[in-house]
């Protein structure tokens, strides 16, 4: 089953409106592979979503970086899935490790968020990944399986889910996972989906890698069988994001 290469740009809590406009115009001018080769989604902070949605080329899509766990209402400071749908924002990133670690989002809470967002018609980039301590103690697979299980227990239809494997030790550190390390976890995650969800979901779900992806390391990572794309942080704010998008060509010619 074909898994279209997926490249997400997570802009995190960065940018002024001037800087955001500049990034968008760089992307708009980029020569990119067609949509059947690569799906591109960029994720600005909430306040810039309308601006980016209006100015970004139509073959690229936008994602929010979070949304509330259930229907909106008296939840000060939150943004609901319904609001994103109302603004025609198609995607949302959920369970990013920065939110898990800094804001205390548990596996269950992330699972609930994924289920609610999907129920409202959003597509979800769901993030999993182990810390350095967990990797060094040999519990990487247990950690990412438990994170994925909390999602799988709440989600029936995986059609609108992209799973992002983002080892915490590789995020913003310049310490990218080796292609072999990424491939190993991606293959294990696919096996987990096969055993615990279905063979069909395992074959069709995109598992993307995030953590210090750059223009320099993307091609080798993209060449791995079970790496179906990237979730890019720092480099997605720079023109090299275009080179990362182009690494989808590696897959096409594989
Ligand atoms: O957290 C990430 C994407 O969600 C990765 O961030 P960096 O690419 O800056 O390491």
UniProtKB/TrEMBL annotation:
<keyword id="KW-0963">Cytoplasm</keyword>
<comment type="subunit">
    <text>Homodimer.</text>
</comment>
<comment type="pathway">
    <text>Carbohydrate degradation; glycolysis; D-glyceraldehyde 3-phosphate from glycerone phosphate: step 1/1.</text>
</comment>
<keyword id="KW-0312">Gluconeogenesis</keyword>
<dbReference type="InterPro" id="IPR000652">
    <property type="entry name" value="Triosephosphate_isomerase"/>
</dbReference>
<keyword id="KW-0324">Glycolysis</keyword>
<comment type="similarity">
    <text>Belongs to the triosephosphate isomerase family.</text>
</comment>
<dbReference type="InterPro" id="IPR035990">
    <property type="entry name" value="TIM_sf"/>
</dbReference>
<dbReference type="GO" id="GO:0016853">
    <property type="term" value="F:isomerase activity"/>
</dbReference>
<dbReference type="InterPro" id="IPR013785">
    <property type="entry name" value="Aldolase_TIM"/>
</dbReference>
<dbReference type="Pfam" id="PF00121">
    <property type="entry name" value="TIM"/>
</dbReference>
<protein>
    <recommendedName>
        <fullName>Triosephosphate isomerase, cytosolic</fullName>
        <ecNumber>5.3.1.1</ecNumber>
    </recommendedName>
</protein>
<keyword id="KW-0413">Isomerase</keyword>
<dbReference type="InterPro" id="IPR020861">
    <property type="entry name" value="Triosephosphate_isomerase_AS"/>
</dbReference>
<dbReference type="InterPro" id="IPR022896">
    <property type="entry name" value="TrioseP_Isoase_bac/euk"/>
</dbReference>
<comment type="pathway">
    <text>Carbohydrate biosynthesis; gluconeogenesis.</text>
</comment>
